[in-house]
Model the fold of this input.
Amino acid sequence: MRKDPRLNNHIREIRKNHQMSQQDLADAVGVRRETISHLEQGKYNPSLLLVMKIAEVFDVTIDALFKKEPSHE
Done:
């Protein structure tokens, strides 16, 4: 049985480096704080539009925010 690859992110680290709270980031991209929390915990796969907004807030590439783990077959 094939497992889907996980999408890991570095949003928490980048957010903290920018001295932003989850609420600050949520306000900047137009979502609820809980969405940011779930995203940082890997419980939520965001839309491409949300990812682009987050990357724009931090002035980083999407690749800097996310990394896909290889799938294990």
